[in-house]
Amino acid sequence: MKKKHKGDLSIQVVAMPAETNPSGDVFGGWLISQMDIAGGIFCQKIAKGRVVTVALNSTTFRYPVFVGDILSCFVKLIRIGTTSITVHIEAWVNRAFEEGKIIKVTEGDFTYVKVDKNRKPEVIKKVNRKKA
Ligand SMILES: CC(C)(COP(=O)(O)OP(=O)(O)OC[C@H]1O[C@@H](n2cnc3c(N)ncnc32)[C@H](O)[C@@H]1OP(=O)(O)O)[C@@H](O)C(=O)NCCC(=O)NCCS
Against a cut of 0.90, is the pTM above it? Predict the structure, then answer.
């Protein structure tokens, strides 16, 4: 992607016909789930363990996503707390039928919590924070 995205590429996926609403546009819920997966992968690497999503904040849908768009989710670290990690996630599309036009479609802040085997919050080790 040549345009200025913030953060590291976490996932890339093609929007398929199964993800559409009756108008033919891609569901916002599908897009959010892709962003959630992207953030989860990023935070799991930092936490060195399982993370769950606790909050989605100030998510903005700027432009629609269409079938055939290549969706890329970029993740930028905002904050590591005691048990939580907050990231900013940007979703961009590369639109094949518009000569590869690149558009930022959605962005938002997501917070994840590291959990133990009993699904309770677990402290993120300092050594992991330094590597983030
Ligand atoms: C996430 C969960 C384990 C947190 O448990 P909890 O007992 O409420 O934990 P706490 O109140 O101690 O909060 C844990 C951390 O989350 C943060 N947090 C809690 N609610 C938050 C919110 N709404 N926004 C941002 N951060 C939040 C706290 O500030 C804390 O961060 P810190 O340790 O870095 O200071 C629990 O709420 C849960 O299991 N939720 C369901 C998760 C889920 O199913 N997600 C969807 C599928 S992955």
Answer: yes
Atom 20, ligand 1: which residue's CA is nearest? 54
- Ligand 1 centroid to Cα of residue 99, in Å, is 42
**Which atom of ligand 1 has the smallest separation from the CA of 123?**
33
Nearest CA to ligand 1 atom 12: 121
The Cα–Cα gap between 117 and 120 comes to 7
Contacts of 120 (CB under 8 A, 6+ apart): none
- For 2-60, the pLDDT digits (tens) are 568 899 999 999 999 999 988 888 999 999 999 999 999 999 999 999 999 999 998 99
Q: Do residues 85 and 124 make contact, with C-beta atoms less than 8 angstroms apart?
A: yes
Q: Tell me which fold the domain 8-131 belongs to.
A: Thiol Ester Dehydrase; Chain A (3.10.129)
